[in-house]
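Check the record.
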Amino acid sequence: MVMVELKRINKFVSESGLCSRREVDRLVAAGKVLINGDKAEMGSKVSGEDVVLVNGKKIGVGVRKVYLAFNKPVGVTCTTDLRDPDNIIDYIGYTERIFPIGRLDKMSEGLIFLTNDGDIVNKILRAGNLHEKEYVVKVDRDVTEAFLKKMGSGIEIFPVLNGIPSKVGVVTEDCKVEKVSKRSFRIVLTQGLNRQIRRMCEALGFRVLRLERVRIMGIGLDGIGVGKWRVLSDDEMAGMLRDVALSSGVV
């Protein structure tokens, strides 16, 4: 007797390359996912023998996984919303459907990954997995030892939700910070708060003039010009898979 492998609906759809598991959950909640003609429920399980439709489109299995490293220029928006004229998807123009892992704000630049592998997206993004992201930042004032110490030891910032600053502050986690030049510094984060570095600098009276992400985990910008992308090498993928091997995905 052949055992049929069953997968949760969010994992099944994300592995097709359509979107992340979190987005699948939103689509399920909105009634946009059908399994054999019936609306899917959170936690529904399916196999390759089931007919799964998302927004009326049939989802297949065995899609080739794509992993890209992109050196995002200032002005490109990390969104899959094609109504945004500056969206990252149209800018890259890749032949298959992909989406960014995380984001860089529009005025920031540097390394960002894009993929169609929804499972690895969740493992990289979960804050508890402590994956490093390294940035080089230029500011409008001289970088002092006091500034470096405060940046590295936690600063209270106020996240913005839907354009409205929160009244409840969040203290950033300890991080590595070092001076690069008179008005620039290097910082390594494992957090991913919205516009975190800019808000940390603002809290100390500094304004960010340039913010570039130069590394994610063990992968850097080497060989990628601004506005260019390349496929991650086998060695880079092996290293990334080792890094996320013990990470938690989103169930």
Q: What stands out?
A: The domain at 132-216 is CATH 3.30.70.1560 (Alpha-Beta Plaits). The CA atoms of residues 64 and 199 lie 39 Å apart.
